[in-house]
Amino acid sequence: MNIVIIEDEPLAAEKLVNYITRFDANANVLKICDKVADVIAFFQTEPEVDLIFSDIELLDGQVFNAFKEIDLPCPVIFTTSYNAFWTEAFDNQGIAYLLKPFTYKRFTNAMTNYESLKANLTQTKQLIQNQSEKRYKSRFLLKHANAVSILNVEDVVCIRAASGVLSAYDSAGNHHLLSGNSMTELEAELNPDHFFRLNRSDIVNIHFVTSFENYGKETLAVNVSHINEPLITSKTRTSEFKKWLAS
Fold this sequence. Notes:
Structural class: alpha/beta
């Protein structure tokens, strides 16, 4: 298990390393970052990371400033002295929130939750991988007060996530709230020949992509039919997006 620690207090980082080693002697702490800039620089190298432990207040600002710039590759266990960031934490793939000082028992509880989540995700991914192409998701069932309507996948322009809520935007200009899936789970259920995840919050249907242009350093502004604003690729997905679009 590859782990990254984001922590600006050396003693707190040392304590985490000790807890991690005690819990799993084979765990590998790849990197300890103490600044927002270090976090961005490290994750732009696209490391293979299974779990992140993250403080919130770092030497040069809040860790959320870094998370806005990168694609988080895995769950995050937040470790902080502040109890005011629950919402932001769980909007940034947080699976546990450990208030300092925390005990080894609380640490193990968080790790047990992580391992359960990991086992479920692995099982889900394996099941999806075993499905043939024709079994990719073909429609969404939209629940209303007294009825259920159907949204065909081919009519979905894009899917967007905001504050933990997923919405599908269709070719008629409507948007629909979706339930039951995380962004990662939903991405795995969609045909990758037709759908591509541009960043943490946006999945786009290739049939509605009309153009793209440079937006900033290593990012693109993607123009999509029926969407008034361009969708922005993350730095780590820009190259892959171009290959996908040209394939």
